[in-house]
Amino acid sequence: MHIEVRNLNKSFGDFHAVQDVSFDIKKGQLIGLLGPSGGGKTSILRMLAGLESPSSGDIVFHGKRVNDLPPQERGIGFVFQNYALFKHMTVYDNIAFGLKVKKQTKEQIRERVMTLVELTGLKGFEHRYAHQLSGGQRQRVAFARALAPEPQLLLLDEPFAAIDAKIRTELRTWLKEMIERVGITSIFVTHDQDEAIEVADEIMIISKGRLEQKGSPWAIYKDPQTPFVASFIGESTIVEDVGALKGFDSAAGKPGTKALIRPEYIEIGKPGEIRLASAALEANVKHIHFRGSEWLVELEVGSVKLVTYRSLEKDVLQPGDRVHVLVHRAYLFNDQESWIQENS
Ligand code: ATP
């Protein structure tokens, strides 16, 4: 289903939970709504579902304005974080529920339920009740139940939030493959950036009721368009004194400009280890932390603090070591503008 949202607003009293949000979603896309708690993600999802009516703006499905259509006529399936399975029903009956409501024959229902049981890897579990299933299995039942009536749009609100970290990672991959296979347009809410980056075709970053940026995970990571997006996605440090960084003189000339620097944009080496040493800053190693696949190194360049990674193959650094530092790329911003600068 192709979705257009135009100038969507939602106020609760004089609080503006969603402000002037517009976007398009193409048929078959998997979209992640990502942002801090209270930003308005769930409110947007509920308005798409018809569970909440917009204060103003238009919601258009397939070229048709649906603002006044009740939820059951919008062709939507839901998956919530707390599974919301019917506890007194078996897996089979949970999945069949939406089909019974549609008054399908027993045979049609059986065929559809068994297709979904196969698709979601729940064969053999049809006669179990919710309490006899693991969290991951319950969420797969919730997914099968949502898909059973063949909705045009699937809405998922924090679908992995209540699941253990390890199973969550498996379930994410599973869900992405499933959604691709079924080809259904889907939108999921999350506050976990790794989840959004791994799962979504496109991410919409929502903060304080506004849509900050929409794009592929890579585009958002590489070319953030607002300081909020730059600092929310990925790891970074913010340097207030841009003049302390070599090669950013033009930025330093603009009052109030700060630099946001990601760990991977920084090259470090012991004296002699780094090329272009003449362009490098002198820094002091403050702390090192082992992270399994690399070291995290905290540096001090005068009063400026930077964070970067160091691979395990290189000599181990120690707190107090003097190192050379090259900053290859920075996201620069002030009250008027933001831009990315590369230092080659
Ligand atoms: P979370 O990740 O915590 O679920 P969210 O981004 O989904 O947050 P929303 O649930 O959409 O955010 O809430 C946005 C804001 O609107 C919050 O400040 C919330 O308190 C407020 N809000 C939501 N629903 C209502 C309501 N029915 N009445 C009053 N305020 C509400």
UniProtKB/TrEMBL annotation:
It catalyses: a quaternary ammonium(out) + ATP + H2O = a quaternary ammonium(in) + ADP + phosphate + H(+). It is an enzyme of class 7 (translocase). GO terms for cellular component: ATP-binding cassette (ABC) transporter complex. Residues 3-233 form the ABC transporter domain. Pfam families: ABC_tran, TOBE_2. Keywords: ATP-binding, Nucleotide-binding, Transport. Transmembrane segments: none annotated. One of its GO terms (molecular function) is ATP hydrolysis activity. Signal peptide: none annotated. Its EC number is 7.6.2.9. PANTHER family: SPERMIDINE/PUTRESCINE IMPORT ATP-BINDING PROTEIN POTA (PTHR42781), SPERMIDINE_PUTRESCINE IMPORT ATP-BINDING PROTEIN POTA (PTHR42781:SF4). The complex is composed of two ATP-binding proteins (OpuCA), two transmembrane proteins (OpuCB and OpuCD) and a solute-binding protein (OpuCC). This is Carnitine transport ATP-binding protein OpuCA. It comes from Paenibacillus algorifonticola.
